[in-house]
């Protein structure tokens, strides 16, 4: 028997026929096939077709032309029922199958895959990350390989098509929405010179180390307080930072001292991430912009100044009325001038 099969393909490759004169409805007719030689890698299996009694020889593990282009199997066939005494199987109960493996142009393979590198974010544009390596399984064809970028969601990377060197075309940002759990994923292609060409895909995982490149920010940025409040606590501020420790908390909270009257506002630390803003005296109904300075613990630290908009409202009979406050808007410098004017009139 002869059979041909393309490398990398599984399935039935040939049917072996037998002749048996016994009753087809009995086990004395039904055939049982066994591969007795030539199958050390268990790449082949044979099963009986119950309708035709043929042996269906199949490839169950893909064959590799570059490893072996030919295989020879020795197959034995017997009946399901044992033979009667003094009858034995002759030479015709075995068959040789010659299998030819056809070469197929296979895509190049990256090694390792995935490829992994670690770099600090914000490294210089043009920095080399690595040189990828893909090999062609079709070693007998002596093909050349060219590389290209397949998926680069943020558009950060370039690859040399000849030697596979990967460098950066933009600043790598760990806080980018294209980065997940500090890892950026890109895909590359290796394309051989076959006809038609075959392609392999490789994955690059870039772990980005954090640098302190984000200033913290406060929340909320709006608060309300009653004009006759006995409890002069205004709001609890929180701070957050897109960076990672140690470039985040503990945060330092301050009121911008150059623009704020001393004895009007106070800010007190609660914990590493929160602070309490309080009034030291009652204020008239108005909107006040209080500049809050928040600084992270990075080296060097990053600072952000954000206006906290405080509405001093009228509170009567458990009802809060901020309409009057909305009609009068005072920045902190205006508040300072107002306080100085009031003192001058005394």
UniProtKB/TrEMBL annotation:
<keyword id="KW-0325">Glycoprotein</keyword>
<dbReference type="GO" id="GO:0044331">
    <property type="term" value="P:cell-cell adhesion mediated by cadherin"/>
</dbReference>
<keyword id="KW-0106">Calcium</keyword>
<feature type="domain" description="Cadherin">
    <location>
        <begin position="6"/>
        <end position="110"/>
    </location>
</feature>
<keyword id="KW-1003">Cell membrane</keyword>
<keyword id="KW-0130">Cell adhesion</keyword>
<protein>
    <submittedName>
        <fullName>Cadherin-13</fullName>
    </submittedName>
</protein>
<dbReference type="GO" id="GO:0005912">
    <property type="term" value="C:adherens junction"/>
</dbReference>
<feature type="domain" description="Cadherin">
    <location>
        <begin position="111"/>
        <end position="218"/>
    </location>
</feature>
<dbReference type="GO" id="GO:0016477">
    <property type="term" value="P:cell migration"/>
</dbReference>
<dbReference type="GO" id="GO:0034332">
    <property type="term" value="P:adherens junction organization"/>
</dbReference>
<feature type="domain" description="Cadherin">
    <location>
        <begin position="217"/>
        <end position="335"/>
    </location>
</feature>
<dbReference type="GO" id="GO:0045296">
    <property type="term" value="F:cadherin binding"/>
</dbReference>
<dbReference type="InterPro" id="IPR020894">
    <property type="entry name" value="Cadherin_CS"/>
</dbReference>
<dbReference type="GO" id="GO:0008013">
    <property type="term" value="F:beta-catenin binding"/>
</dbReference>
<dbReference type="GO" id="GO:0016339">
    <property type="term" value="P:calcium-dependent cell-cell adhesion via plasma membrane cell adhesion molecules"/>
</dbReference>
<keyword id="KW-0677">Repeat</keyword>
<dbReference type="GO" id="GO:0007156">
    <property type="term" value="P:homophilic cell adhesion via plasma membrane adhesion molecules"/>
</dbReference>
<dbReference type="GO" id="GO:0000902">
    <property type="term" value="P:cell morphogenesis"/>
</dbReference>
<keyword id="KW-0732">Signal</keyword>
<keyword id="KW-0165">Cleavage on pair of basic residues</keyword>
<keyword id="KW-0472">Membrane</keyword>
<dbReference type="GO" id="GO:0016342">
    <property type="term" value="C:catenin complex"/>
</dbReference>
<dbReference type="GO" id="GO:0005509">
    <property type="term" value="F:calcium ion binding"/>
</dbReference>
<dbReference type="InterPro" id="IPR002126">
    <property type="entry name" value="Cadherin-like_dom"/>
</dbReference>
<keyword id="KW-0479">Metal-binding</keyword>
<dbReference type="GO" id="GO:0007043">
    <property type="term" value="P:cell-cell junction assembly"/>
</dbReference>
<dbReference type="InterPro" id="IPR039808">
    <property type="entry name" value="Cadherin"/>
</dbReference>
<dbReference type="Pfam" id="PF00028">
    <property type="entry name" value="Cadherin"/>
</dbReference>
<dbReference type="InterPro" id="IPR015919">
    <property type="entry name" value="Cadherin-like_sf"/>
</dbReference>
């Amino acid at each position: 028997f002869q059979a041909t099969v393309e490398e990398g393909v599984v399935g039935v490759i040939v049917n072996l026929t037998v002749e048996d004169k016994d009753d087809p409805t009995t086990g004395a007719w039904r055939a049982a096939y066994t591969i007795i030689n030539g199958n050390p890698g268990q790449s082949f299996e044979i099963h009986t077709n119950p309708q035709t009694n043929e042996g269906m020889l199949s490839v169950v593990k893909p064959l590799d032309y570059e490893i072996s282009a030919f295989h020879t199997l020795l197959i034995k066939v017997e009946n399901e029922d044992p033979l009667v005494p003094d009858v034995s199987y002759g030479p015709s109960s075995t068959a040789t199958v010659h299998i030819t493996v056809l070469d197929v142009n296979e895509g190049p393979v990256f090694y390792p895959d995935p490829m992994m590198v670690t770099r600090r974010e914000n490294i210089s544009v043009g920095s080399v990350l690595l040189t990828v390596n893909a090999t062609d399984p079709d070693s007998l064809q002596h093909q050349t390989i060219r590389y290209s970028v397949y998926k680069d969601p943020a558009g950060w990377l370039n690859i040399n098509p000849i030697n596979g060197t990967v460098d950066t075309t933009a600043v790598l940002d760990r806080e980018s929405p294209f980065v997940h759990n500090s890892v950026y994923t890109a895909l590359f292609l290796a394309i051989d010179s076959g006809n038609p060409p075959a392609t392999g895909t490789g994955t690059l995982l870039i772990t980005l180390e954090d640098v302190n490149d984000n200033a913290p920010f406060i929340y909320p940025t709006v608060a309300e307080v009653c004009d006759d409040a006995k409890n002069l606590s205004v709001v609890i501020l929180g701070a957050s930072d897109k960076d990672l420790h140690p470039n985040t908390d503990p945060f330092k909270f301050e009121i911008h001292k150059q623009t704020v009257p001393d004895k009007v506002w106070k800010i007190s630390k609660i914990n590493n991430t929160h602070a309490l803003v309080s009034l030291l005296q009652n204020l008239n109904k108005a909107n006040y912009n209080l500049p809050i300075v928040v600084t992270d613990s990075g080296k060097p630290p990053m600072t952000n100044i954000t206006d906290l908009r405080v509405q001093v409202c009228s509170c009567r009979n458990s009802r809060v009325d901020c309409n009057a406050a909305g009609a009068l808007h005072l920045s902190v410098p205006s508040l300072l001038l107002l306080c100085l004017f009031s003192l001058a009139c005394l």
